[in-house]
Each structure stands twice: as structure tokens, then as C-alpha cells.
Amino acid sequence: MTAPVLGRDFRLLWSAAVSSRFGDSLRTPALALLAATLTRDPRAIAAVTVAGQLPPLLLGLLGGAYADRWDRRRTMAAVDGLRAGVVAALAVLVATGRAGVAALAAAALLLATLGTVFDAASFAVLPSLVAPAALPTANGRLQAGTAVAGGFLGAPLAGVLFALSAALPFTLDALTFAAAALLTLSLPPARVPRSCSCGGDKPAGDRQKVNHNCKIGGRSGGVWREAWEGVRWVRRDRVLWGITLLTAGSNLAISGLMAVLVLYALEVLRVPAAGYGLFAAGAVVGGLVGALAAGRLAGRFGTVPALRGVLAVQTLALTGFALARHPLPGGLALACFAAGTTIWNSLWASYGQRQVPAELLGRVGAAQRVVGRASAPIGAAVVGFAGQAYGVAPVGWAAAAIFAVVTVGAWRTLRAAAPEPTAAPPTPVGTAGRPALRPRR
């Protein structure tokens, strides 16, 4: 299968995403290191982490609504510009010795809040830049680029830069946000398509039957009402709803495993402390391989069958991980599992981007992310308490069991899917949007 040509506009978006991810991978560990130098109170350090985790869950739906209201290209550029300002201000506070835990928490909160709008807009803008058949490959390339920027470049460099100067990682992060904003502004205008104000939560084929005045982005009275249109759309589409619930189930296991991964590696797999970085890098390599393979798998098997198959392979990988008692087989199993995660992320995004009308993409993508991520804090909290009581060894088996249930659910629910698209030019940005969907079964 010949890889699709993605074009200049995709390369600009890819460059912006990679630049931003590189900055994130510098800032995130630097925030943790800085918090640890300011206080040893676990509650204060945890507050910084929680401040960055709450906005996607509490405000994610609003971010999707605004992404569907505004020009998505300008929205992404404006958000990155604001994030550059926030991080630059934090860098000044750090450099002058005036950064406290409250300032770190406030910065994490602001950045995560702005990120909800950016994530929704970037999810919605991609289908206007590449052909529908190329979406799995495009999403995979984005996953691969950000994995390299974050896992291989930014994360190892963050500690070195912080040791040189505590303000340096934040300064570079601000510059990467500014660069991403300029790259995004080079994209063609991305005007939100028109849709009927009373049909925003119906499949496109049904909306065409409604003879009412239309408004930009389905604005039917209040931003929260618009935001809930995305939830209603996902809930009414059996395949999208199934993918969303399966993502939530998967994240329950993934977040629990990641919460104690370092302890599991050291105590169960007997990874030497000095070798943990290499062990973790294996997962990054696996994720990169999976991201690059996503498009080929979708082209050969179809997006939905590939999603079901990936969950089955991940279940086997987690079973091997639970059985392993040595760093090498454990690391290989974890790398295989990570490959499946990036494939899943690429393919579920591609499916939604193809099937959802352009005017609802921001809200539907936000709804899927909010529901899919809601289980993550639960998984981490449960594993934390269970690990304290019973040790971390059972965590591998618990994660494998959850994925087995998710896999069975996938084979039962992911059946009725829309036909795979054929290669065709992308819908021009600023037109009336994607072709109409057939009514949901």
C-alpha cells in the first residue's frame, strides 16, 4: 500500500504540534522539579499536578464549543500565543526567585484550560487539511512526531536544562509555543461551516431535512447548550459511543498501571534503578512504531476492525507483562502495549474525524476526550490504595483483566461502522463541510 501524500498544510500542522510537544516535555518535568525544590509537602506538590488535570475534565466540553464557534486556525494560534505569554511570565518569576507553589499551580491551571480549546480546534482542523482516506496516516504521523519530540528529545533534556538554570526549560517552552503559533497562522483560513441551529445534535442526513434559518457552528442558545450537542451526537452514534466507552475502560487500566510503573519495574521486574530510563525508552520506541503503522493497518483491515484487533493484541501484551519477572520480557511486552496505544489513539481520532460533520467536530472530539479521560483519576487512585494494601505485583494482572473485558466489549459493539473512504482530495477549508452522513442505525 502506497503511503498517501499529506501535503504542505499537514506539514505545517505537524511542525506546530511537534514544536509545542517538545516545549511541553521540557515544562512538565521542570514544574515537578521546581515544586520539589520549593516544598517537600506532598499535598502542595500534588496540588500542582491536580491543577493541570482538572480543566480537561471540567472545561473540555466548553473548549469544544468555542472551537466550533471560532476560526480554528486563528484559535489555535491565539491559544499558543497566550500559552507562550503564561510560560514566559512563569520563567520571569522563576528567574527572579519569586515563583511559589501558588504560581506554579496557577500556571498549570491556565495552561490546561487553554489546552482544552487548542485540543478541540486541532482535532477539528485536521480533516480540512488531508483527504479522508489519509486521516489514519496523518494522525499516526502526528503521534509519531510528538512521541519523538517528547520522549526522545524533550524529556531527557529537561533535567539537564533545569540543572543549568531553573528558568531555562520554561523560557524554551515559551519560544516553542510562539513558534507553533506562527506555523499555525501559515495554514489556510479554517472558517467553521454553517449548520442548522436546531439540528446540531442530529446526523447530517437528518439535518438536511430541517428548513430553518442556519447559524454559524450550530449556535442554538448558550455555549453550554452548544457544548452538550457534542455529547448528544456521540451518545446517539453507536460506534462512536462504543469507542468512547472502550477508551474510558482502557484508560482505567492504563492510568492505574502508569501510576505505579516505576515501582512495578523496580520491585517486580527487577529493573536496576540506573536502567529505568532505558526501560521507559522502550515504551516510547513501541509507541513510535505503532504510530507509524496505524495508517497501514487501517488501509489493510479497515479502521474499526483494526481497533478491535489492537485491543486483543494489547490484552496479550499485558498478560505477558503480568507474567514477566525480568526486565527484558517485561520491557518488550510494555513496548508492544505502547504500540497498541498509539495505534488506538490514531484510529479512533480518524474514525470520528471522518464521520462527524465539520461544524460539530470540535464538540464531538471534546466530548469523547472528556468521557474517555474521566476514568483515569479513578484508576490511579484505586491502584494507589490497592498497591499500599496488597503490593504492586497484582496490578499487571488487573490491567490485563480490564483489557480483556474491554476487548470482549469491542468485538460485541464495534460492528456497524460507516464504509471506509476512498482516496479523494480533502474538503476545502471554509466550504460547507464534509459530505452528509447516513442516518445512524
Automatic annotation (TrEMBL):
Keywords: Cell membrane, Membrane, Transmembrane, Transmembrane helix
GO cellular component, one term: plasma membrane
Organism: Micromonospora rhizosphaerae
UniProt topology in membrane: Multi-pass membrane protein
Transmembrane region(s): 44-66, 86-111, 117-135, 147-168, 239-264, 276-294, 306-324, 330-349, 396-414
Spans annotated as Disordered: 419-441
Subcellular location: Cell membrane
Main location: membrane
GO MF annotation list: transmembrane transporter activity
Keyword set includes Transmembrane helix: yes
Organism taxonomic ancestry: Bacteria, Bacillati, Actinomycetota, Actinomycetes, Micromonosporales
Source organism superkingdom: Bacteria
Compositional bias per record (Low complexity), positions renumbered to this chain: 429-441
Gene3D superfamilies linked to this entry: MFS general substrate transporter like domains
Record-linked Pfam families: MFS_1 (PF07690)
Protein name, UniProt field: MFS-type transporter involved in bile tolerance, Atg22 family
InterPro entries xref list: MFS, MFS_trans_sf
